[in-house]
Amino acid sequence: MRMYRYSSFAILFLCCFSFAAADTFTFKADRMSGSKALGREMTILTGNAEVRSDNLLLRADRIEIQGDDNQFIVCTGGVWGLEEEKEILFLTERLRYDRKLKIARLEGRSTLEDRKNEIVASGRFIEYDDQNEITVFQISVRLFKDDMVCRSEYAVYHREEKLLDLSGFPVVFKKDDEFRADRIRVDLDTDDVTMEGAVSGIIKN
């Protein structure tokens, strides 16, 4: 097994790697340690840790870079992320990113802000698929857009189509109006609401 460890008060390390012929990434931190053992490759960054992979910038208290070709990035503690091209901001307790599939999984109290579409959403688990532009939210889901608030236990956000599918006790509040059903679809471009199963609501003139 081959081990390495470095430490420094200032930014310690800056390095670029090629990945899948198109992707490169850089990382830096106050301290770095890790292993190059075959099948157990890992780099651990602590203290002002930062990783940039293609258009995704990640910052956290601790970042682990794992796997063959540095495929997985695991961030813990005060995680902040930004998909720069699409202007999507992440805040979470723990994040795991697959550089090959371009899928990020957020765990713990987590927030996703789509700045281009002026949407803020939160949940206890979020899976963001960058290639397909689909985000899945689970547990205590909340989504805010202008004067509309959506709540549910499960939601799927189709970013390209600007559609939100809610299930698991979904409810949508639009100003003073309230909508409930087994399943609710919200067109986030027009704010139109489509409901199915056990539909109920309150509309105030």
Helix percent reads under 10%
How far do the termini sit from each other? 72 Å
Beta-strand percentage range: over 45%
**Overall mean confidence score, pLDDT:** 87
CATH topology of the largest domain: lipopolysaccharide transport protein A fold
- Summarize the biggest pleated sheet: 18 strands, antiparallel
Going by CATH, what is the homologous superfamily of the largest domain?
Answer: Lipopolysaccharide (LPS) transport protein A like domain
Poorly predicted residue ranges: 1-22
How many structural domains in the coordinates?
2
Task: Describe how the helices and strands are arranged.
Layout (H helix, E strand, L loop, with lengths): L2 E5 L7 E5 L3 E6 L2 E5 L6 E12 L2 E11 L5 E12 L4 E11 L4 E12 L4 E11 L4 E12 L2 E11 L4 E5 L3 E4 L2 E4 L2 E5 L5 E4 L3 E3 L3
Antiparallel strand pairs: 1-4, 2-3, 3-5, 4-5, 5-6, 6-7, 7-8, 8-9, 9-10, 10-11, 11-12, 12-13, 12-14, 13-16, 14-15, 15-18, 16-17
